[in-house]
Amino acid sequence: MFIAVTPYKDLDVDDLEHYIEIAEEIDLLLLRVPMTHDDLCWALDYLLANGFSQTKLMIHSDMTILEKYDLNFIHFREDDVQAFEFKKLHPHISVSMSTHSVESVKRAREWSLDFVFFGHVFESRSKYGLKPRSYKEIKDAVSIDIPVYAIGGIDTHSIKSLPHGFEGVCAISFFRDRSSREIQLLREEWLAYV
């Protein structure tokens, strides 16, 4: 599974047009933005009006937006208690969480979350200067009985060095900056990986 994550900024028409253009090549789009409620609704309305599938939309921690748009996916920051409480009350909604430690992955599993992002697995622009997770941390994380998605520094070159065990990949820069054809090449590399 390929999950595109928006950069943390107010999205404009150019951003939205890009995600519409690559929609066939990604499985989910996580909207993780500092936009106001009204501006986020505008962005969602724009995506939907221009053919982006509602089933591919994931919202970051905004339960009001999730319900208003009848979305199936919501994502939370690491160890956000709201995620655990929300999953308990809404078992039919896919609830995921960002994780940066094996302990957080275990907690997500204990609370029956559906999957986690784990990273950053490679050096990344969004985590500049921070050391990526170690090989041991990665192997320990993917050994836990919950789907784990790699995030951080994913591209057509780094994916060849990705330790085995991930269910998919997430990326901010790669999916924001690349064409559909380049994403297809990443999928070819991913299929060789799995």
Rg, nearest Å: 16 Å
Structural class: alpha/beta
Order of helices and strands: EHEHEHEHEHEHEEHH
Q: Largest sheet, described in full?
A: 8 strands, parallel, barrel
Q: How large is the count of helical segments?
A: 8
What's the quaternary structure here?
Answer: single chain
Strand order of the largest sheet: 1-2-3-4-5-6-7-8
Q: Which architecture does the CATH hierarchy give at level 2?
A: Alpha-Beta Barrel
Assign the CATH superfamily.
Aldolase class I
What is the straight-line distance between the termini? Answer: 11 Å
| CATH fold-level topology | TIM Barrel
Helix content: 25-40%
Low-confidence stretches: none
Integer average pLDDT: 96
Number of strands: 8
Strand content: 15-25%
Shape: globular
Question: What's the number of domains?
Answer: 1
Provide structural commentary.
The protein has 194 residues and is an alpha/beta fold. It has one domain (2-193): Aldolase class I (TIM Barrel, Alpha-Beta Barrel), CATH 3.20.20.70. The protein is 38% helix and 18% strand. The protein has eight helices and eight strands; from the N terminus they run E-H-E-H-E-H-E-H-E-H-E-H-E-E-H-H. The protein has helices at residues 13-21, 37-49, 63-68, 81-89, 102-110, 135-142, 173-177, 180-193, and strands spanning 2-5, 28-31, 57-60, 73-76, 94-99, 115-119, 148-151, 168-171. It has an eight-stranded parallel β-barrel. Helix 5 (102-110) packs parallel to helix 6. The longest helix is centred in the C-terminal third of the chain and has 14 residues, at 180-193. The radius of gyration is 16 Å and the shape is globular.
